[in-house]
Protein 1
Amino acid sequence: MEYVRRLNSIKSSCYEILIVRFFYIILSYIIQNLSMQKENWPIIARLLDLTKESSESNFQNGIMSILTSDLGWPESQVSKEYPVRMGSTSKKMDFLLKDSEQHPMVVIEVKLSKSHDDGVAQLGSYMNALEPQLNIGLVIKDKIYVFYDESNGRKLSSLSDAIYSIPFESGCAEGEKFVELFDFNSFSYKKLLDFCVKRKQELKEKQDKLQMIQKIVNLLFGSAGVDFVKSAVVEKLGSIEPFKNYSFQVLEAAIADLDISIKKNTEKQELNKSEYTAEESIANNSLVLDIDRSSCYIDKGKKNKIYPDGSQERFVENFHAQGYGFIYWVLENVEIKKEKWENRNNSITTSNINNNLRSKTYYRANKQRISEIVISSKELNLTINY
């Protein structure tokens, strides 16, 4: 009996050792995989940064190498120039990631960083044209942009619709997250989808917070703001010692004699563009353009036209040099609408720029609401005043 008991004890110990060993192997694999992911991103970032301004074929070849060599995707699950039928024509998307059964999962559109086309409209049309339709896609340009659209790409129109952007910088946490999501050895479409859904919800919550802040600001700085604060103070005092022993009328009379003033915090908080998409930000009425008006040229008229470049001449020169500029339509309710202005026929001059602005579709539809127009060769920062 003693022999049997000792034998069972040894067996039990062996099982425990095997279980511990098993979990040790799993943990070691996870740690090793995470370490490799962190090591992979600097290599990926360097390669993308080196090829983003070369030729499109070099950029695409570099991305193919990243997908198959650095992220470990089998070539059988990465299709380059994948054909898709769009109406009566056939198009070729740059890359398509597929599952083991060759079903489409993620579209990747590639554009050189200097390209005037951001590729987002193409990406959306490909996502919508595939079978099954997709709601996740990437644009790789000057950054990696991750898009998630429940309507299968139909609502995507610009880079500002991205839910996540990853700069080509070796030490950025966003890059390590990208490798974690897209490394083939640990890839899970469900994990990627969960990340996108959560990310979009976080952006919405932050945007809701900004909108709520603006509503509070509008309330407090309106004509009834001080009265509102006094009423709130009276209500709060009526619930705590020793003030709750006094009647509401006494508390109200006491507060009425106080001089209460409400002041804005003059500090500006710049929006983090990796956390707030530009489209959502611009739609928020609390935003202002971060420009130094003292250094701007202002063409005064019924609707002032403001040039942060310093002069009309300098804007036109930069506009032709880079092939595009930006128009910010500032409405009477302080809402700001951004429009990218493409240089399509090199016809813009200082003498006809005003006529060109007035011919814009947005101007014609909203000219009664537009208070001023900001015309810049560079994309401007947006700030919020609390």
Protein 2
Amino acid sequence: MFMFSVFTSLLIYFAGVYVFSSKRKHLLMVLLSLEYIVLSLFMLIIIFLIEFDYDYFFLFFFWFFSVCEGAL
């Protein structure tokens, strides 16, 4: 189950990177794909932190900075 979750989140990440690189003339699509990439990285970090039983303190920092980046 762990490998399926990792592959799924990486697939989502690369789909976001593809949309980011292919829709460079449409500003709204670029911004939405950046948020999509951030959400996929957030999901990947959650999967790794749950699997290896680490503290979720880093997750809150990532969440804080991604929200601030999205608000800009």
Protein 3
Amino acid sequence: MVSVNDDCRDLHFRKAEFDPEDCPPDCPKPCEKVCPADAISLQSVIIEAKHARSDPSCAKLEGGVITERCYGCGRCLSVCPYDRIRAMPYVRDPTMTAELLKRSDVDAIEIHTTGKETDMFNTLWSSLGESINNVKLIAISLPNVGDSTVNFMNAIYRTMQSNLQGYNLWQLDGRPMSGDIGRGATRETVSFAVHLSSISNRPPGFYQLAGGTNPHTVDCLKKAGLFQSTTFPGAATSGMINCQHAFIGGIAYGGYARKIVGRVLRKIPAQFGHARIEDHSDYLLEALHEALSLVGPVKGYPTLPSL
């Protein structure tokens, strides 16, 4: 799958940026502590003979944002005591995206849209041209913009309809990039689902939740009667709810998945230095166990034994 956006204001398509030389050498570095992706690394280096810790004026900070790790959550922006961090938005080049979609190893596209301006979506869709005919799945990720949400969805569905060769999926982004914050983060995305479930003229397609999703999302959906379940042989069925209104068929875990798998990944450098998790079966099994404990209730897998 390849992800694109129709608006540079989309939170998923931005990177944090700052010059570490603009930071005071004795800065407590709250940005480094708050980053959930370990995408900020700052080191104090000596610029004169004196030790930096005893005389901050003789030191400077080096490092900064590790761009390939930053996914644009924005938490560093508000904690910087000197307001030195900027969010740099970008738009994925549609021409380059169209070329990617012609490859045999790319069969799905995710389009992030702000849910406000159909013209911007239509421009992006037109730019992709016939390459869109090569994909098996088109996922549209959008936030809840209130009463106009369904009208927007129906409008862009009409734009896409003639080119839909496979499945289409609506990803309801209730509270972007916040699932790892706490239990309550899932309320907005479940409320988004509840709102859409009450509207009969919503567009066809599969629906899944994103943004604020965490281990409490499934239980909240069950209580609202909105969770579709698939039971595999040997899987427990107690507590599963199936009803004609349960149109949520999937959950996308982003920030929370990074959090639980990241706990395992961070153990490896301390013991082995730079290494691939695939080369260390114990850690790989632990990471898979963490991941399956999260997606298992969605997929209807049997409860995993403790490691």
Protein 4
Amino acid sequence: MSANELYRVEVRVRNGLKRYYLVREVNTDAKKFAATRVIKSGTKPTKAEISRTIALFGFDLEMKCMNKVAKFRAGKFTFERYADEDEYFELEKFRYLLARCPPGDLDHESAAYISAAACTAAVEFTPAEVSRLFSAGEIPRGKRLFDVNVVQNLHNAYRLHGKKERLTPKAVYRLQSTLYQNIDEAPLTPSSKKDLAALLSSFNQKIKENAHPFEQCFLFYEAFLAEFPEAGLLGFELFSRMTAGFGYRIPVSSWPEMIAWVKTRNADLEFSVRRSFDEMTKGKIGVRQKQLDFFG
């Protein structure tokens, strides 16, 4: 997608004078959020003038839209336990930036995820070791068969992350069968189904009642581990899938640790989005292009 496809030009007439604006508009939650910048007054802007305005001010318009969307969503939902709107503002900034950030190294991301998830089963594999296991079949010295099976199962589960599936007890048991293949006895038994269904029903009801989705995912995770304390691996994977479905890909830890991670990550994501924007608009500002007259 080119930078020009993200914007439109809008003309407004005031006191008989036409003003041409560059507009960045974002649609979310059935609402429109826009930020504008004057391109010029009088005659219609040329393509070069539009491109140059995008290159100079397009990223700033994107950030203005981000702040509007994040502020709206931070105040849109109800909160059950964590009620700091500044924290939700950071969460919504993260969600916005993540959706606009260019894709990273998928192999590196999957290795890092599998490494973190394996820790919940007391299995230590570095991301580099995970990568070598699947790229070269290299098993690190000293690793047990149990360790390798956990990592292999996580790899199989990770490959299904793109699959959209409604979270039901049946889906959870199916995920469990993938995660616990060839390792210890699975933590959820057939008799666990009723308690699991109650947790999922409560979660879905609160989402319908406009509770903040990320907070509810975390509260579900806590309740799930309280009910099934041996299911750390499954709980980690469930949390990851649930939050990703709402647009938040955040590694689970304590609430303060996750918020601190998000704040740090937001700075990195903003830099990445800016760099991507600079790449899209490279060459749009040239000394031979006509200088613009900016008003307001």
